[in-house]
Specification:
This protein is mainly α. The chain is built from ten helices and two strands, in the order αααααβαβαααα. A two-stranded antiparallel sheet has the order 1-2. Helix 1 runs antiparallel to helix 10. The longest helix has 32 residues.
Length: 302
């Protein structure tokens, strides 16, 4: 193959590989990182101690309890005096081991329900039931002798997580992610190896591949920061931004680490190739000594 064609094909393959790096990392994270229930529960577990998440739970559960009581009893005369006790009881419950266990159990159950819905095993909408938390808060308020605590109804308050009308679209996206999460990283590696193998100057090809990988990692870091801002900006008015930001950071922590690893690995490989090129000593070929000139033939004596 002519050198020009080899160089052109090598450049195309290396470019495709570098373009696929951030998309492959994103697809693999979504397909294998978010769909593993054990890994998801482990990732979400530290959020049970996050102050912003706790306050969001306090507001959601406390307001839900007060609304449920209003539906059964007329609490308007004492609502303002009871509200602080309800929120303090919920806040106290979020600092217990029982809340952490309920948090992990709820995340596990919710994640399993979401996966079943995305895989077509369940056609119902995915919701979260707050009744166990309400029961614990009612018990705490009763122990503190809060007025009307014994009359708090423990109802199954379901918070929607995955609406049923969006399931068909989400299932298609989930199946695409399953395919892309495997084939995009494989294609990136195959294109990189093929581009380096076809290159006329392989050292330059390795450097270009490493720098392109580092650039892909940097773009992925920027995309995560931009996505965080857009996600928080698009939330409804009632959703607290600090808690949503903590959840976003926890879910994308593995992907962010992967992006920084791509950036660091690419720069390290490019630097190593550069240093080895400079440190390689040129080979000196010994000079060949010219053979001695032949002696002139002796002159004949006359």
């Amino acid at each position: 193959m002519p050198p020009r064609i080899r160089s052109a094909l090598s450049a195309v393959l290396i470019t495709l590989s570098c373009l696929l790096v951030p998309f492959g990392a994103l697809a693999a994270w979504a397909a294998y990182g978010l769909t593993d229930t054990g890994r998801y529960v482990t990732t979400m577990a530290p959020l049970a101690a996050d102050p912003a998440v706790r306050e969001a739970v306090v507001d959601t559960v406390g307001d839900g309890i007060l609304r449920a009581v209003d539906e059964h009893l007329d609490m308007r005369p004492v609502r303002g005096s009871v509200r602080p006790f309800v929120h303090d009881a919920v806040r106290s419950f979020t600092q217990t081991r029982a809340f952490r266990l309920a948090w992990d159990t709820g995340n596990r159950i919710t994640h399993d329900a979401v996966l079943r819905a995305l895989r077509g095993e369940d056609e119902r909408a995915v919701t979260v039931d707050l009744a166990p938390v309400t029961a614990q808060v009612k018990l705490q308020l009763t122990r503190d002798h809060v007025p009307l605590a014994a009359h708090i109804p423990v109802e199954h308050t379901e918070v929607p997580v995955l609406p049923a009308d969006r399931l068909p679209t989400l299932r298609k996206g989930y199946h695409v992610l399953e395919v892309a999460g495997f084939w995009l990283p494989v294609a990136a590696v195959v294109f990189a190896v093929g581009g380096i193998a076809l290159a006329v100057h392989r050292r330059r090809a390795v450097t270009a591949t490493a720098l392109g990988t580092a650039l892909g990692g940097a773009l992925l870091v920027i995309a995560l920061d931009v996505g965080r801002g857009l996600t928080l900006a698009g939330l409804p008015a009632g959703v607290p931004h600090p808690a949503a930001g903590a959840v976003y950071d926890a879910l994308t922590g593995t992907l962010r680490t992967t992006a920084w690893l791509l950036l660091g690995l690419g720069l390290a490989v490019a630097l190593a190739v550069r240093l080895t090129r400079r440190l390689r000593l040129p080979r000196r070929t010994p000079r060949r000594q010219a053979p001695p000139a032949p002696a002139p033939p002796p002159r004949a004596r006359t």
